[in-house]
Structures are given as C-alpha cells and as structure tokens.
Amino acid sequence: MSDREVPASEPRHWWRLVAIWLVVSVVADVLYLALVGPHIPPGRMSSTASGASFDFNVLFVMAVPVLVAVWVYMVYAIVMWRSSRGGPEPAGGPDARGHLGIQIGWILTTTVIVLFLAGFGTYELVQPEGSGGGQGPTPIWTPASHHVLQVQAIGQQWKWTYRYPSFGGFETNQLVIPEDTTVAFHVTSLDVIHDFWAYQLGVKADANPGQDNVAYTTPKQLGTFMVRCDELCGLWHGAMYNSGTVVTPSEFESWAATTERLLAANTKLLPPFAYSYIPDANGADGGYYPDDVDPYSTAETYGAPQSAGG
Ligand SMILES: [Cu+2]
Predict the structure, then answer these.
(1) Ligand 1 centre and the CA of 258: distance in Å?
(2) Which of 182, 259, 283, 299 is the most exposed place for a label (fewest CB within 10 A)?
(3) CA 241 to centroid of ligand 1, rounded, Å
C-alpha cells in the first residue's frame, strides 16, 4: 500500500498489521498443531480415519490465518483509531478503492486458497479407496490390496447385523474385523434408509433397501469402535447403535471360524448371502426371511397388497 497520502507522523499501519498477523498466525498454528491436532476426531484407528483427521488439520491450519487477519485488524483498529486516543477525528486509512495492489492481492489470495482447497479436497476424497465413504455398488476407487475382507452391514429398524460371506454367510450382531486388512463394507437395509457410521474407523455409508453400498477401510489399531445409525429412521433411531472390535488377523480367523460353526444351524435358515435383499416382510415373494420362518407370513397383512389366494 502506498504511503503517499499518509502524513509523515502516521506510523506504517500496513506493515505493522502484516507483522502482527504473521506472528500471531504462526504461533496459533504451531500451538494448534501441538496441542489440538493429535486429538482431532475421528482419530487414527484406520486408514480412512487418519485421512479424515489429516484433512481437518489441514483445513484448520489454513483457516487460522484468515481468522487471525480479521481479528488482528479489528483489535488494531479498536486500539489505534479509537477517538479517546485524542488527535484529529479518524478519517479512515489510505484509500483502498481503486488500489491496484489491494485488488490484485485480494483476488489472487482468495483464488489460490479456494482452488487449492478444491483440488486438495477432491484428491483426499479419492484416496485412500474413497476415504471411507459409500461408493455405491460399483466403486471407482478400489483398494490396491487384493486381500479384501467382505463384511456386509445390514440395517433394519432398529439394529445392525453383519454377514461374513467368506465364512459361509453367517449373520451376527458382533462386528469383528482384523487389523491391517482392507475391509469392504457392503452396506444395505431391509426396510427404510439407515446410515452405517463406524465413527472411529472414519467410515460412513448410507444403507438403502435393495442397494449394495460399498465402503473401504483398513483398520490400523486394535480396540473398540462405535457403530451408529446416522440417518433418522424412525422412533428408536437414537437407540440404533452397537460397537465393533478390531482384533489381530489370527484372532479374527479363529473368531470367524468358531462363529461360523456355532451359527451353522441358524445360517441354514437365512436366505443365501446376497448383496441386497428385497425388503418385503411377507417373504413369500423374495423377502429376507424364507417363508417357513417369516414372522409375518401367517398374517400376510403387512407390505404390498396381496394377490388373490395370497
Ligand atoms: Cu437407522
């Protein structure tokens, strides 16, 4: 900014503001990264969770200098140009209108920030393997690993169950997955729209009836994570949650083999594993339950209108 219209006695406000902004921004960003950054949710439990935490930190580190610029200017103006300091009535600073430097600087800075964030955001959305978001039945961004464990997450009012197609398709309400193994969650629903949200894994995918919605992640830490329904799905939506566990690959293999054996009798009563099920409680025309165990099949009053003789 030019000093041409500023009296010689005036301090160089512009350079002072820039210096204060620079120092406060650097200090605030360093403090943020040291004190807050490591604790930003959803944490580091999986590849996709780490990615989400990293993105939050990048956004915050970029936003802080913008916030500081506004606050520094405001505080500086309140202190320097308040009328109780005496002197002549404040008449505003040097002209900004028509100032080519300010115009170019303003447009360049905002353009660079917005374009960088658009590019960065798009890249981060793609890697790794779609960032833990549901990609529909035919994912574009697939894992490099060829050892991918398939786990089906089935939402229904109001609980989650899980099927393991590579272990005979058994169904359980326990979500157990192995560490350091890429997992493909196949998310679907038997009734209304739910949303499978494995919070600490950074995985979130809509559960739609009749749809197979795939989301990938690779667990990186042992422990427990929360699973919540994140789509308002009826009266007990708020109670639709359980937890999952990341165990070592060998613990997983033995858990899965044991559970497959223990549930073998139940698994026989289930429909064969499929990537989605027709959400029809009557069962007679392809619903999730086979006719002989369908809890609704005797009444046949629920669901679509019945044909004659039904
Ligand atoms: Cu739900």
Answers:
(1) 29
(2) 299
(3) 9
CA of 243 to the centre of ligand 1 (A): 15
Burial of 189 per CB tally in 10 Å (0-12, 13-18, 19+): buried
Tokens 């369908």 sit on residue: 294
DSSP per residue over 209-253, as a string? BT--EEEEE-B-S-EEEEEEE-S--STTGGG-EEEEEEE-HHHHH
Ligand 1 midpoint to CA 240 (Å): 6
- Whole-model pTM: value is 0.81
Burial class (CB in 10 A: 0-12, 13-18, 19+), 284: middle
- What sign for the dihedral angle of Cα 250, 255, 256, 260? positive
CA–CA separation, 15 vs 45, rounded Å? Answer: 45
Q: Return the CATH superfamily for domain 148-267.
A: Cupredoxins -  blue copper proteins (2.60.40.420)
- 215 Cα to the center of ligand 1, angstroms: 17
For 176-225, the pLDDT digits (tens) are 999 999 999 999 998 889 999 999 999 999 999 888 999 999 999 999 99
Q: Give the span between the Cα atoms of 295 and 116, in whole angstroms.
A: 55
Q: From the CA of 236, how far away is ligand 1's center (Å)?
A: 8
Element (H, E) at 221: none
Q: Where are the domains of the chain?
A: 13-79+107-127, 148-267
